[in-house]
Every structure is written in C-alpha cells, then in structure tokens.
Amino acid sequence: MITYLVAFLVALMVALVLTLVVRNRALAWGWVDQANSSRKVHVRPIPRLGGIGIVGGFFAPLCALFLVDSAVGMQFRAQTALVWGLFGGGLLVAVLGLYDDLRGAGAKLKFGVQLLVALGLYALGFRIEVLANPFGPEVPLGLLGLPFTVFWVVGVINALNLIDGLDGLAGGAAFFGVGTNFILALSRGDVLLCLLMAALAGAILGFLVFNFNPASIFMGDTGSMFLGFVLAAVSIKTSAKSGTAVAMLVPVMALGLPIMDTLLAMVRRTVLGRPMFSADKEHIHHRMMSRLVLSHRAAVLVLYGLCALFMLTALGLHWANRAQSAMLLTGMGVVVAVLMRKLGYLDLRYASGVGEVRRRNIRLRSLVKDVTEAVRAASGPKDLWAAVRPLADELDASRLELRLERQRDGNRDGNRDGLTFETQRPAGSALPLEVCLRVEGSGGWLGRFLIAWSDGRSEINRDEELALEVVVDAVGDRAGKLLAQAEADPQRVVSLLR
Q1: What's the CA gap between 173 and 472, in Å, rounded?
Q2: Considering its fold, how many domains does the chain have in total?
Q3: 3-state helix, strand, coil in the chain (%, to 5)
Q4: What is the pLDDT of residues 147-192, one digit of tens each?
Q5: Distance in Å from the first CA to the final CA of the chain
Q6: Which domain holds residue 379?
Q7: Residue 369 and residue 344: Cα distance in Å, rounded?
Q8: What angle do CA 314, 320, 326 make, to 5 degrees?
Q9: pTM to 2 decimal places
Q10: Is 492 helix (H, G, I), strand (E, B) or coil?
Q11: CB of 485 closer than 8 Å to CB of 431
C-alpha cells in the first residue's frame, strides 16, 4: 500500500504544479477557450490545456519505476505489452488532443488516430473475447473480438470527451471509474494495475483543484481523450482477469454516466436528423441545469452521486451471483428510467413532431454544407456575402447583415476600416428578434453577423442557432485568411472608412 500511496502523491504533486504552470502560461499567451458560443456555460475566456497536467502527473511516477531498482520496478519493466500499450497509445492520444486544442482537428483525423491506437492495443493483447450474460452462459466473440475491442476503446475515448461540459464533471466521472478499477485490481492483488490507477487518481485530483467550479482551467481534448484511453485499456485488462459471469458489464457500469450520455446523444441526433458529431446543449448535464433548475455546481455534485451509484453497482456485479446481478441491473435500470423521465428524454408529447423536425434538420444540414463550401471558396468580401446571403431566404429572415472590420493601429476603440453588407425581406411585421454573432478568426475579432426575424417568434430555433454558429465559424476562418492576404498586398484592397 505504501507504493500505491507514493505513486498517488507523486502524481498529485506533479499534476498540481504542472496544471498551475500551464494555466498561467496559457493566459499569458492567449491560449484560451472563448465564451463565444451558445453551447458554452462559462462567461469568460478560460485556458483549456489542463490535460497536460493530467498526462504529466500520470506518467511521472510510472517513469520513475524504470529508474528505481526495486521488485515493483522490475515487474513493471517486465510487462512490455502493458508498457507499450499505455505509454505509446497514451502519448499518441495526448498529442492528438493537444493538436486539437491548439489548432483544431477534424473528425476524420481524430477517428483515424483513435482507430490506429485501438488496433495497436488489440495487437498487444488488450482484447475483449467474451461478452457477459447474467441471465445465461457467456457469449464467446471469436472473430468479432477485434471490432468489439475497437468499438470499446474508441467509444470510451469519445464518451469522456462528450461529457466534458461542466466544470469538474469529466474529471469526477473518470475518478469514479478509476476507483472501481483500483478496488477490483486490489482485490486480486494486481500490483501493476493498482499502481496505474493510483497514479491516474492522483493526476485527476491534482487537476480538479483548478477545474472544480468555478474552474480556472479546462482539461480540453488533451485530458478527456487521454483519460478515456487509459480507462478503456485498463478496463479491458480488468475484465479479462475477472472470473465472474458479468465480467465486461463491470467496466460498462463503472463508466455508466459517460456511456449513457453518449448513447443518448447518438440516438437523439439520429432521430432528429442532426449531424452525429455536431455539438448541442441536450446532454444530461445541460438538462440537469435547465429541467431541474440546478446551479452549475449542484448539477455536478448530483452527477457525482450518480457516478458513485454506478460505481457501487459495478462492484456489486463483480461479487454477485447471477440472480443478484440480475436484481442489481434491474434496480439500476429503474433508477436510469426515472432519471430519463425527469430530464424529459422519455416525454412522448413531442413524439408526433419528430418527423417534421428531422426533415427540417436534413434540409438545414444541406443548406449549411452548401453555404460553408461557398464561404471557403470566397476570394473576397463580396464573395463572402454572396455565400451567406441565401440564409435570409432559406431561414425566412427579415434582415441579414454581415459587418467586417479591420482595426487601425491596433486600437480597438479608434477608427476602423469597415465593410457592411445588408439585405432586408418582407417577412412579417412583428417586433423583430435579432441574433448577433461575433465573427472571429485566428487573429481575434473581425466583425459581426446579424440575422433578424419579424414573424413573431420569441426565441431562435436551437438547430438554426447551431447551424448559424457553424456558418459564422467558417466566415471568420475565411475572412481572417482574406485579411491576412490584404496585409501582405494592401494595394489589392479598397477600404471604406465608416
């Protein structure tokens, strides 16, 4: 136990110091997550590279084992497959997350690297070969073991990434999963898995000091994907060494909250015709705040309690017989069903309108695709305006305005070179509802995009709001590149002083 405690404390201290340093440097260098989206729950720019502290804290005590001449160190060095899997795969996933936090990575790149890592784990012996069945005999997977293993690894990585929506939530959910794996490994006397989980627990707690509400730093994709990877890999080892009939159900239940939230998101987006990898504000933590009228911190604490319940159920499944396992799963199913009903996921009053919402969203997706493609091909401000102007007709807006500005002499309060495009349509006579979005590029603020409706609506449709944010992001990216070209060749640009 002394070894586990030392690993925990070393990871804790390294994560504390590293997170503090990263937070201060990120603020000084402007590497922050802007509060410029309706999906964000924070109201000020916050650094999002805290995952570096988690990764450093986790690897610090493990790397020390290679330098210490001890029985534990020799045992650790002897497990080459475990070392290569966790170190190699973990570093690759962490680098992918860091690149995404700094530059932005597309879905193809993310899933390509995650798939490569999952295949590497399978080759090193991290395999799911049997599916548990508490109501009957186990189901051997045979050739299906490879796709099931890949699906598990990629799924858990993205599940932790999706649930990272409130201060301290992803870290807390991961901590309960770590606790489950630590207790199971301890009960079997598995020293190496206990060390891994002790180190990860210390790294998470060291980061949570700065991430619990109100957070001063976010873990970003660097932290969420890394946590998902380590938990997915260790869970495979934990279940493979379990002799119970519900072996694989234990890690599923231990990570119950992120897995449940991911499945709900997949079903919701499929049924409503939304892009599978689009962001929304319908996750469990969002509905906790809106439906149950909970504060940010209260919602996180309630979800911690739910994670603790999943953890206890997972541990119960490990030691229960078939009948007891069935009772535990039934009881947990009732709890989940009640929660889903409270959060509005099972509200049948809206079922009749699902078809119309789906058709509208499919048309909206097609519109956004066409507009963003035209935006990316724009060769000047007029082309940008021509690309976004169809939004007025398609969204039945009464007014559309695109304002692009270039600050002079770096003074935001002084004179600006500005160019404004505007169109108006006869689309109602009610008091207009205006939505104004900031246009930002890699260099910062570039202008604004305004759209208004006069048809009597009191709020913007959520899917239309998300679609507009995607379009404005594309406009900001392209406008920034066009302005950069203008700075390089100013004779090609005609400025209008406003």
Answers
A1: 33
A2: 2
A3: 65, 10, 25
A4: 999 999 999 999 998 888 888 999 999 999 999 999 988 988 888 8
A5: 70
A6: 373-492
A7: 31
A8: 80
A9: 0.82
A10: helix
A11: no
